[in-house]
């Protein structure tokens, strides 16, 4: 219960600071700027927060491209198509889970498979997170994946030990599931 009260108080503090900043900008614009239209500047703090939260909840395609590169160490093929994307909201430490189901040409599919095998990944299974979308959970739980490969933990960096990479390959020779999780 105390945990929830702490987060509620922190949320109220953030809202109060945004409102205070907006009010201060409004008063400054009204008092010192020649035209009353400048008072629109008071909307900048809440607008900036809203945009930040929106892109944290609904990441752009470049977010999944960067995760693909982080997990596989390869550039995403130019003709690759995202069939499904899903990501959780980052927590206070920046940890999140993202899943992308990608269709790509067979030659890129085989090159990725060879690269993952070459890097010495171990056979494993994805981590299922209840806060991912139902479609992403279904893609991860799909039993038709030919290979489930999990990156070994890097013992040199203590923060890398909390990251989990998963690449699943579909039987169709074109579909790949890429998951990145941290906790």
Task: Summarize it.
The chain has 183 residues and is α+β, with helices and mostly antiparallel strands. It has helices spanning 2-32, 44-57, 61-72, 106-118, 134-141, and strands at 81-87, 97-103, 122-123, 147-150, 163-169, 175-182.
| Envelope shape | elongated
What's the number of helices? 5
Give the low-pLDDT segments. Answer: none
Please count the beta strands (DSSP E, at least 2 residues each): 6
**Strand order within the widest beta sheet:** 1-2-6-5-4-3
Order of helices and strands: HHHEEHEHEEE
How confident is the prediction overall: mean pLDDT?
79
Structural class: alpha+beta
Instruction: Name the helicity range.
Output: 40-55%
Beta fraction? 15-25%
Describe this structure in words.
The chain is an alpha+beta fold. Helix content is 43%, strand content 19%. It contains 5 helices and 6 strands, in the order H-H-H-E-E-H-E-H-E-E-E. It has helices spanning 2-32, 44-57, 61-72, 106-118, 134-141; strands at 81-87, 97-103, 122-123, 147-150, 163-169, 175-182. Strands 1-2-6-5-4-3 form a 6-stranded antiparallel sheet, with helices on both faces.
Lay out the secondary structure.
Blueprint: H1 2-32, H2 44-57, H3 61-72, E1 81-87, E2 97-103, H4 106-118, E3 122-123, H5 134-141, E4 147-150, E5 163-169, E6 175-182
Task: Please name the defining characteristics of this protein.
5 helices; single chain; 6-stranded antiparallel beta sheet; about 180 residues; 6 strands; alpha+beta; elongated
């Amino acid at each position: 219960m105390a945990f929830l009260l702490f987060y509620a108080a922190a949320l109220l503090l953030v809202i109060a600071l945004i409102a205070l900043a907006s009010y201060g900008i409004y008063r400054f614009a009204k008092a010192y700027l020649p035209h009353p239209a400048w008072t629109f500047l008071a909307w900048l703090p809440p607008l900036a927060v809203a945009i930040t939260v929106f892109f944290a909840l609904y990441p752009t395609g470049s977010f999944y491209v960067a995760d693909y590169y982080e997990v596989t160490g390869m550039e995403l093929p130019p003709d690759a198509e995202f069939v499904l994307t899903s990501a959780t909201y980052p927590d206070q430490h920046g940890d999140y889970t993202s899943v992308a189901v990608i269709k790509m040409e067979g030659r890129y599919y085989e090159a990725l498979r060879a690269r993952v095998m070459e890097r010495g990944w171990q056979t494993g299974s994805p981590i299922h997170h209840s806060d991912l979308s139902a479609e992403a959970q279904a893609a991860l739980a799909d039993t038709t994946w030919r290979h489930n490969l999990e990156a070994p933990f890097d013992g040199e960096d203590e923060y890398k030990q909390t990251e989990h990479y998963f690449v699943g390959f579909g039987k169709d020779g074109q579909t790949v599931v890429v998951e990145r999780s941290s906790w």
